[in-house]
Amino acid sequence: MSTTHTHEIAGHQAGDHAHDDHGPAKGWRRWLLATNHKDIGTMYLVFSLTMFFIGGAMAMVIRAELFQPGLQLVDPGFFNSMTTMHALVMIFGAVMPAFVGLANWMVPLQIGAPDMALPRMNNFSFWIMPFAFALLLATLFVPGGAPAGGWTMYPPLVLQNGTSFPMLIFAVHLMGASSIMGAINVVVTIMNMRAPGMSLLKMPLFVWSWLITAYLLVAVMPVLAGAVTMLLTDHYAGTTFFQAAGGGDPVMFQHIFWFFGHPEVYIMILPAFGVVSEIIPTFSRKPLFGYDAMVYATASIAFLSFIVWAHHMFTVGMPLAGQLFFMLATMLIAVPTGVKVFNWTATMFKGSISFEPPMLFALSFLFLFTIGGFSGLMLAIVPADFQYHDTYFVVAHFHYVLVPGAVFGIMAAVYYWLPKWTGHMYSMKLAKWHFWLSTIFVNVLFFPQHFLGLAGMPRRIPDYSTQFTDWNMVSSIGAFGFGLSQLLFAYIVWQTTRGGVKASDKVWDTAAPHGLEWTLSSPPPYHSFEVAPEVK
Amino acid sequence: MSKILKYAAAGAAACLPTGAALAAWDLNMPVGVTELSRDIHGLHMLILWICVLIGVAVFGVMIYSIIKFRHSQGAVPAKFDHSTRAEIIWTTIPILILVGMAIPAAETLIRIEDTRNSELSIKVTGYQWKWQYEYLDQKVDFFSTLSRDSDAARQLHSGIDPNTVDNYLLSVDKPLVVPVDTKVRLLLTSADVIHAWWVPTFGMKKDAIPGFVNEIWFRADKVGVYRGQCAELCGRDHGFMPIVVEVKSKEDYAAWLKTQQDGEAAPAAAQTNESATTAVVAKAE
């Protein structure tokens, strides 16, 4: 940033310059002062990709240390910091901002709105994120090291973190504030700015899934903020919310945390459901099967997500009735989730399917997310969970739903809409390479972790007994392959923004997509839908 | 996809050093040596097979659709976009399957939670990073920590090959000793952070929480040595606080108990010889 720029902006402010609506501002002001949903969406997506690589690098450290028994590379304390930070960075830095970025780009385009409803809050909610993550990542360099008590921040262990403890809490506060603002913006936009004629049950499913996700965010992020604030006062203000010695209860934190935490996992998967529900009909050349059922299933999943939290903590010693209730409620989630999988399958049935990269990722999502769903069902069975709990089986389960689930959903979305955003087609050949490498390696990486967990390997350990060596090696090889493959993704995206074959307005010519986004040019004008389109 | 995985795993396996080929490629949960662990194993296999069957059916239809209805083969898309009958069927059938799973699960759970009529109670306290076992009303009380040779080998850059250490990371200086065919109740608590006591062959895992007492029980029906680990992240050395349980015949147990009650000091002194020197050298942290 040169000094000329600084003078320039000072001059503008002094002159009370009128708002310019003919295109983006020049230079860094376009980004720092952004109010355009497309610019903010782009920043979210770039931020998310950056965090994906930072969190991924941490995963590589974890898998390198676990490549063989014995401690070769890192101290156990640092290893714990890596598992903790990997989770925080991937959840709050990579997956959630990616979906907010997609919402920013696509919700206005899909509902025929000119922009998000609250553009300045939109700017604020994005620009909090770099500060939140600067604070979080700075903990790697403070005395005592980065947080090492797990991303779940269970007391009393979390209170043993050093200087990083308050930084962790405030970083979580900032992320929460950002998410809440982003969610409010999505709700207000969808509720107020739909094109005339677009009733709720005519909205694209991506919009529907984001509307429901936004409500989940507004409901649970304050709960997380409350939980971590209680940790803060326990540490500094002499309260004993979570200390038995003072009449508190360490398990209460887990209840509060997972009341946030379980809806959180649906926050990370529902928008991916929405993406897949857009892509499968497009490349099957057939309307989505059971649109209404899909909406109701998503809403049911969201409702159930509020009454199943304690399945994350079956081993804390709950009353029998509590365990039975949470087991049955959890099993019930399989019903609406099953409806979704069956409807996607029925959409493909008797369709006319082609296999462009977005469809490939959506199909991979369909198969592998279902595997994650099966292991989730197994984990719901309380007696069996007494064996699975806190083992690599759980690690395998949630990585199956988060990586080939949420992350593949994001990648499918990027491959689906990138030509619309940039106006250029990406290299199909490279994208297919990226798909095959990712799909093969993600299975080599995570499938053996089921075996490790069943054979008795606990999670979050830096070193293991020698009988676990073989599958750990396989898993690490998969991890390195998967990590390297993602560099290809970054390259494909970068290359597409630089140029390439011109994409048509409809982008996917052979298909018959009917969403409003395809009625705009590729790339869409900086201010789109200044006159609201009519929806029949 | 699982096929791809299988080939990929086999391919990766082929590249491994030959020494590793001798080790275990464990795939499944151990069956265990208690009634409850066998029930849990049975439940696990039941659910697994149900999932496999559903998976075969669902993935079968998906794969069939992908192969049969390809655009490149000139497939013409149908126009239908819903079928109320199909929706009712694939909502109802899963509910019935879930009920079928829930009933045996609830039965097993009720038995797991029945801690009455135990014949021996042991208080287990978790510490960072060791376990304390206190035989209630028996005047036996000792700590159990990672064995010295494992501890030496697990230091960063120790230069000791873990494969040369017996039961690397799964052996302790002084195991918990219990009699066979006896309902043993453990009272779990912690002195610092939350830990979890877990021996896979007993099928049981429960958190040890500061300020609270949790209960589990087991009745081992086979003499032997069984190993497990702390299963709740408890700080830097969470991976290094194993659990070893020695199940002895009732006579052997009685004899062991007597030696413990007679000479508390003797066994403690006996531990500090042999590997102590190597451990001291390696422990230069």
Task: Give the tags.
heterodimer; A: mainly alpha; 17 helices; 67% helix; 0% strand; globular; B: alpha+beta; Helix Hairpins; 5-stranded mixed beta sheet; 8 helices; 21% strand
Task: Explain what you see.
The complex is a heterodimer of chains A (536) and B (285). By secondary structure, chain A is an all-alpha fold. Chain A is 67% helix and 0% strand. In chain A, α7 packs parallel to α10, α13 packs parallel to α16 and α15 packs antiparallel against α16. The relative contact order of chain A is 0.10. The N terminus of chain A is likely disordered. With 285 residues, chain B is of the alpha+beta class. Chain B folds into two domains: 88 residues, Orthogonal Bundle (Helix Hairpins), CATH 1.10.287; 144 residues, Immunoglobulin-like (Sandwich), CATH 2.60.40. In chain B, a hairpin with a 2-residue loop joins β1 and β2. The two termini of chain B are 46 Å apart. The relative contact order of chain B is 0.13. The C terminus of chain B is likely disordered. The chains are: A mainly alpha (536), B alpha+beta (285). The interface between A and B is large, with 105 and 108 residues.
Quick structural overview:
The complex is a heterodimer of chains A (536) and B (285). Chain A is mainly α. Chain A is built from 17 helices and no strands.
Helical residue percent band of chain B? 25-40%
CATH class of the largest domain in chain B: Mainly Beta
CATH architecture verdict of the largest domain in chain B: Sandwich
Mean pLDDT of chain A: 93
Major sheet summary line of chain A: none
Low-confidence stretches of chain A: 1-20
Molecular shape of chain A? globular
Overall geometric form of chain B: elongated
Share of residues in strands of chain B: 15-25%
Strand content of chain A: under 5%
Q: What's the number of helices of chain A?
A: 17
Total discrete domains of chain B? 2
Give me the number of helical elements of chain B.
8
Largest sheet of chain B: 5 strands, mixed
Q: How large, in whole angstroms, is the Cα Rg of chain B?
A: 25 Å
Distance between termini of chain B? 46 Å
